[in-house]
Amino acid sequence: MNTSSLLIAGHTSPVAATRVRFSAHACFRRDYSPEARACLQLLGRYLASLRGLAFYVDGLDFLNDLLVEVPELRSHIPCLIAHRPLDGLLGESRLPVVSPGDLPGHIENVFLCETRMFPRLQMRKRIPDGVCIVEPDVITKYAVESIPASAWVPAARDTIYPIDVPEIEFEHGLDFLLIDCPARNLGLMPNGVGYVHNALKHTDVRYQTRDLDILIYHRFHIRRLFDENGIVTLPGGKELPPDPWQAKHYDLWGDPDVLTYFQPEIDEIIAKIVEAKPKVLGLSIHACNERFSRIVVEGVKKELPETVILVGGFACYSADIGLRGFPLADYMCIGEADLTVGPLVEALARGERPGNTPGVLSKYDSPDYRYLAGPMPHNLDLIEHPRYEWYNLDLYRNYNGYQLTPVIASRGCRWSRCTFCAERFYWRIRSPKAVADELEWLASQGCHLFMFNESDLNGMPELVVEICDEIIRRKLHIKLTGQLRIHRKADRAFYQKLHEAGFVALRFGVDAFSENTLRLQKKGYTLATVRQNLKDCWEAGIFTEVNWVIGVPGETDADIEEGIAFLLENRAHIGRLENLNPLIMVNGGVYWLEPEKHNIHFREPKEVLYWSNPRAIPASSWYSTHPYIDEKVRKARFNRIVLALYSANFDVSAWAERVIEDVRLNRDRMRVGLGEGVLAQRYEGGSGAPPQSETACQTVPGETVSPLISIQTAV
Question: Is the dihedral of CA 313, 314, 316, 319 positive or negative?
């Protein structure tokens, strides 16, 4: 990047030749340096020259700093404006405090006495029309030569800010408050929460839905871009990535330091829920937001012990895991929560505490209760698609304007035979008209890039073709992505039809690239079919990605060599290896349910391991025989694949890069256990990561990943 010089305060400073902007937070930083104090003095004297000036404060630090440097300013402040209680004003005398909507008639100017951008954006919305708003940035208009170089920070070219970010607020006296806490991947719409919201429409309860994740997402990025020079550094010195919501940073949300950073938001959420006093608090739970949600629930229950906690979502897919997955819950909807939540919430709102309810587990179930599944209607067209009515849809985009919209055409998996997979649920698909209706409605709202967020979109390829025909007939100019199974009915004409409808990228859950491993995984196709699908898809103009699961019982070293050779031989039709995962023994898969049939052995009593590890067994705690495979063998095979692909310059995704890094450094006990890393030094790090666990075909239902970006559903 070129450099140039900037003359500031009589000094020439070299700066990168890039766009910069003024940062009030950087200029008036509380380090009490001569530069910061000088700017406070300049600003204070300017404010003292204005008539009819009131100070709008969100906190008192900045005001107190101004009064220290310019004491005479106090006599020019007739009142303070605040939207919440204040304490800590410097000095003995107290200034009158009014609300933003009750300004005295003599107030002509309102100074937003706050350096942080997000609070100022919220303040602006509360000031009545006709009043002149003055902000700290005013110093750039009359004293630019005195502003230190550190106050000028890089200006992001592609940011969507400022935008109107709603307040975190809840209605009082609700029967049911439904929230979604951070972190959900990127600025995406919460599918499952939308379906639950729709189900509540058919009840007689008073409810409210609030997507707290998207609010905190935008708060974070406004703070990062406008207050923190583009980089957020935690108190301990750890630097957060530019977007912690990206799937590759899934593990950050379990880091205590990261949660401490978001503690002000957590405290605000808890305080406002306590003030609102809902009868029932509902949360969508998945691995990335489990700890954040737990802290919120703990805080609410401390103040409102009678509030009922109801959860659902990814973390609630298995009755075998049940309440162990989130012990703070009183009730847990298993699987598709929108099918059971309505009658349950109605009963809870009436003060009842039902037990032994189909589709639900609770602390009120009888000790001998055996879980019964809830209703599962075949006709998905009876279920209205989400419209996300709680916020303007424009809010659902990344800080840089990128927007990926999730849609669901089917639920469950029609194949349901892959040995490593936990998703074994009844498959249903919506009608082509219903799918196209949703796409058309979302397109009318400004959405144009869609991801089919499911595991088995092409369970019936002929229906996918009909969906495409409906999209083409309606002339919807959209782009589509999704994940498909390799299928013998998917030929060149099939993929050409998908391309015509707008599909631009597809991920294939191939998961095995040798004939023997395909049989072991019960994939239901041969390498010839894999080769044909990838070739036809690529030549139809659709970018392809593939997944690979390594180390299933019965796999051999020869299978690994055959797999490497297959990828390299067919690289012309494979855009990228998206997922590369050593096998994880997850609850719900065949290996978990029938370990003995697959020559699986445990290093501790199975009952103890299953009870203490309800979701997945640590890699070091189990192995298989014939041939012998343990975590060291899986890791060695993993390394062999990585080195071979890197030597051939074969493209892997950011997510796969992160898995590689996790394996190399032994950071994931479910994949590789603990011990010294063995990956050869030819590997030079990585930056990607899976969202909350592994590929959609390896873990819990509903965790499907887009070929363009990983995302999570919540049904």
Answer: positive
Cα angle 133, 136, 137; round to 5 = 95
Q: Which of 436, 504, 506, 503 is nearest to 476 (CA)?
A: 436
Neighbouring-strand partners of residue 319: none
Q: Are 266 and 292 in contact (CB under 8 A)?
A: yes
**Most distant CA pair in the chain, distance:** 87
Relative to beta strand 600-602, strand 622-624 is antiparallel
- What 3-state DSSP class applies to 204? coil
Identify the H or E element spanning 211. Answer: strand 207-211
The pLDDT score that the predictor gives to residue 681 is 28
The full length of the chain comes to 715
Q: Are 117 and 26 in contact (CB under 8 A)?
A: no
Conformational region of residue 499, where left means phi above 0, alpha means psi within -120 to 50, and beta covers everything else: alpha
Provide the Cα torsion 112, 116, 121, 124; round to 10°.
0
What residues in the chain have per-residue pLDDT under 50?
Answer: 1-2, 90-92, 674-715
How many helices and strands, by DSSP H and E, does the chain display? Answer: 21, 27
d(CA 356, CA 369): 6
Burial class (CB in 10 A: 0-12, 13-18, 19+), 572: exposed
- The residues with which 508 forms a beta bridge, in sequence order, are 484, 546
Distance linking the first and last C-alpha atoms of the chain: 47
| Closest to 694 in 3D by CA, of 505, 422, 417, 318 | 422
CB atoms within 10 A of CB 711: 23
Residue 426 is predicted with a pLDDT of: 85
Contact 518, 539 (CB under 8 A): no
Residue the block writes with tokens 């609030």? 210
- Cα separation, 116 vs 264, whole angstroms: 14
**Do residues 76 and 53 make contact, with C-beta atoms less than 8 angstroms apart?**
yes
Closest CA to 454 of 476, 429, 431, 434: 429
What is the tens place of the pLDDT at every residue in 461-518? 999 999 999 999 999 999 999 999 999 999 999 999 999 999 999 999 999 999 999 9
pTM of the model: 0.88
- What is the per-residue DSSP string for 578-605? EEEEE--EETTSHHHH-TGGGTEEESS-
In whole angstroms, give the CA distance from residue 456 to residue 508: 10
Amino acid at 103: L
Q: CA-to-CA distance for 201 and 596, rounded, in angstroms? A: 47
Amino acid at residue number 158: D
Query: What's the gap between Cα 573 and its chain centre?
Result: 31
| CA separation for the pair 707, 700 (Å, rounded) | 18
Interatomic CA distance for residues 240 and 226, integer angstroms? 16
Q: Can you read off the two tokens belonging to residue 52? A: 């009819």
- Beta strand 616-617 with 585-586: parallel, antiparallel or unpaired? antiparallel
Contacts of 136 (CB under 8 A, 6+ apart): 24, 27, 28, 43, 62, 112, 114, 115
Would you call 389 helix, strand, or coil by DSSP?
coil
Residue 508 backbone dihedrals phi, psi, to 5 degrees:
-110, 125
Q: What is the rounded distance in angstroms from the CA atom of residue 321 to the CA atom of residue 166?
A: 36
